[in-house]
Design brief:
alpha/beta; 7-stranded mixed beta sheet
Length: 499
């Protein structure tokens, strides 16, 4: 039976797939730059005769499980005590405030220059807290760490010397992960972030293009923040926004992949989706705000093009939702086409949209972990990227017409080992209405796979399976992730106790 509007469906399908292939092939460009530039990092400068004063800023909001761990880690910094100031920028409304106050009091008695700055009103959210701290900071350099980070004692000694170059406005370290092996979800997140830092950041920075501060595990030169106009909160990614404004003002950024700062990955898929929503919405808001300035600037066209792809990359999520609707009808419509024609048209698009992404993550895992076990987790990584499409597409649509918004921080539970629990702790993120659409897509692709099997569409099954796996994985994990964690710990507890 002919499908209504078949020609229009095919035309739209190929248009969407072509745009997604463009963003996928761009990852191959980043890979090429990475292989060309990976061994051309900056020379490590010698230690300064007099260490500059550094203010370490710790923005917190209701982080009862990890706040004191962060303060302990920062107070272990191997840095001259008289050149170090610590600001705990605390907007908490729960007992985190009392826990932090006690920790700060204890370290002050030990001789640390540490202060507890509490705001009763979260004006500007994290950006507002950092701006308030900046007004009172003593240091010319501002190091920022989120609550779930555990920086090593030598972090400042390894990064601060690079500010001997007066043109450097930011030094960004690479994120590491204290709970990479906790679950399939954390493994997949670690692979996402490894690729972001080791491929994207390194390639952009070494090629002289813009890249962004990641909100934590980095050090700003205070003057760069001032020249950029200061922290602003009209987007949900204040770090990306400030990064582009500072680089437009002429400041140079530096990425140090060899310097890592361990942090906790979200173990609750609803918290992870909340984090991804904020990042996607904020990046589109930043694109609306600054992309015009970037394109009108006297920057090289290659830098402008890279900035365009960087700032619009999350726009692929609405296209992924549209592709989810079109892929099975398009496959039905193409059943009777000449196989040679399908080979010529489909293979390049499939390579750009899928295989290029696969290579991107495989190379990043070889750089991060030596490549061990990476291939076996690729279906999870690709499926998770597809499963996030509904959640992040909603974020992109909101970002197109809305400035700012509520900064919902990602809850952390001090998860460091596989047996650590979280499902009964505070701050649990709740599912939103996106889960209903994800469930509908899971059912839709179940039916599509069954029909493809019955109709003998064997070449379509691997492609359809990626969608099937992605939507079912996100849907079931969203609804039952916490219950699965409690069941698994009950099964493990007798073994743990016996050990």
């Amino acid at each position: 039976m002919p499908i209504p509007f078949g020609s229009a469906i095919l035309a739209l399908y190929y248009l969407v797939l072509s745009i997604l292939a463009f963003y996928g092939l761009h990852r191959l460009v980043l890979l090429a730059i990475y292989f060309w530039q990976r061994n051309r990092g900056p020379m490590r400068p010698s230690e300064p005769r007099e260490w500059p004063r550094v203010t370490v800023q710790l923005p917190l909001f209701n982080e009862r499980y990890v706040a004191t761990r962060l303060i302990d880690a920062v107070c272990r910094f191997d840095y001259p005590r008289d050149r170090l100031e610590i600001q705990v920028l605390d907007d908490s409304t729960d007992d985190t405030r009392e826990r932090v106050a006690e920790s700060v009091r204890r370290y002050r008695q030990l001789g640390f220059d540490i202060s507890h700055l509490h705001r009763s009103v979260r004006t500007g959210y994290k950006a507002g807290a950092l701006a308030a701290g900046c007004d009172q900071a003593k240091g010319d350099l501002l190091a920022i760490f989120d609550a779930d980070f555990v920086p090593a004692a030598g972090f400042l000694r390894r990064t601060v010397p690079y500010f001997a170059d007066e043109n450097v406005g930011l030094v960004q370290a690479r994120w590491d992960h204290v709970n990479r092996e906790y679950s399939l979800l954390t493994r997949a997140q670690a692979m996402f972030l490894d690729a972001h830092f080791l491929i994207e950041h390194l390639a952009r920075n070494r090629a002289g293009h813009f890249f962004n501060f990641n909100g934590t595990a980095g050090i700003w030169r205070r003057q760069a923040i001032v020249d950029a106009g200061g922290w602003e909160h009209d987007t949900l990614t204040e770090d990306l926004d400030l990064s582009y404004r500072a680089q437009l003002a002429g400041w140079h950024f530096l990425f140090l992949p060899e310097v890592t700062a361990p942090a906790e990955l979200p173990v609750d898929v609803n918290a992870f989706k909340r984090q991804q929503f904020r990042w996607a919405k904020g990046s589109i808001q930043t694109s609306r705000k600054l992309l015009g300035r970037v394109l009108r600037s006297p920057l090289p066209w290659t830098t402008k093009l890279e900035a365009f792809v960087h700032l619009t990359n999350n726009g692929a999520y609405p296209l992924m939702v549209l592709l989810s609707l079109l892929v099975f009808p398009a496959m039905l419509l193409r059943r009777d086409l000449d196989p040679q024609t399908l080979l010529i048209v489909d293979v390049p698009l499939f390579f750009g949209a899928t295989i290029a992404v696969l290579l991107f993550y495989l190379v990043s895992q070889r750089a991060a972990t030596g490549g061990r076990k990476a291939l076996r987790y690729m279906p999870v990584v690709l499926g998770l990227g597809i499963g996030l499409a509904v959640n992040n597409a909603r974020a992109v649509i909101e970002g197109l017409y809305q400035n700012g918004g509520v900064f919902e921080r990602t809850p952390k539970y001090r998860i460091e080992e596989r047996g650590d629990g979280w499902s009964r702790k505070r701050y649990r993120a709740r599912p939103n209405l996106s889960v209903l659409v994800e469930g509908l897509f899971a059912a839709y692709f179940t039916l599509s796979v069954v029909l493809a099997w019955l109709l003998g569409m064997w070449s379509a099954l691997p492609f359809l399976y990626l969608f099937l796996h992605g939507y079912w994985y996100i849907f079931l994990l969203t609804l039952f992730g916490g219950r699965w964690g409690r069941w698994r710990r009950r099964r493990q507890s007798p073994i743990t106790e016996a050990a």
